[in-house]
Structure to design on (183 residues):
């Protein structure tokens, strides 16, 4: 059932196979459209994740699964990818993963996100954090984005890569961390 939102996106689980065949190594579902079709859509997405030919991050049957990073080794370098959404909307308000509760990984639970990044840094050489964040149409990062980026850098993120604004935002180094505020 469509949720009370302006835009609604959905596809079949075959999209994950198409992405794999296109050379995509992993995907995130941590965004403000993850649950455009309500509880049944969330259940379907989690089932698609379980059957996916490629890793899916940012969504899960509970918070442990939703925040779990994708960890791999590339040319001897251990890489972890963590994903979360910072967009406060219907999805993040009503479908945020928690203990025993399915949903998306949320950057609004900053302490949980930072804990996951610190844990990922303990087992990986490179930690990339994907954040769905910012304000649509605004080409400068918000104070909140800058604050989260600083905390993620301090927690051990090697890079923070953002999307959502539908315009390019600035990017550069924040101490030892590359931050791409919006692509």
């Amino acid at each position: 059932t469509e949720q009370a939102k302006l835009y609604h996106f959905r596809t079949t689980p075959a999209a994950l196979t198409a992405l794999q065949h296109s050379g995509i190594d992993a995907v995130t579902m941590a965004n403000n459209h993850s649950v455009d079709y309500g509880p049944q859509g969330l259940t379907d997405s989690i089932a698609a994740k379980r059957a996916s030919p490629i890793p899916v991050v940012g969504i899960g049957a509970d918070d442990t699964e939703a925040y779990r990073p994708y960890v791999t080794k590339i040319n001897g370098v251990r890489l972890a990818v963590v994903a979360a959404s910072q967009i406060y909307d219907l999805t993040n308000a009503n479908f945020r993963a928690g203990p025993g509760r399915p949903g998306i990984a949320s950057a609004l639970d900053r302490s949980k996100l930072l804990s996951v990044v610190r844990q990922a840094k303990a087992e990986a050489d490179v930690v990339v954090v994907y954040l769905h964040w910012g304000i649509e149409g605004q080409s400068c990062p918000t104070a909140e984005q800058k604050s989260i980026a600083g905390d993620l850098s301090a927690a051990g993120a090697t890079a923070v890569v953002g999307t959502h604004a539908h315009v390019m935002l600035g990017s550069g180094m924040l101490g030892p961390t590359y931050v791409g505020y919006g692509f």
Remarks:
- The mean pLDDT is 96.
- The first strand starts at residue 27 and ends at 28.
- Strands lie at 27-28, 56-57, 59-60, 70-74, 77-85, 103-104, 126-132, 159-163, 171-174, 177-180.
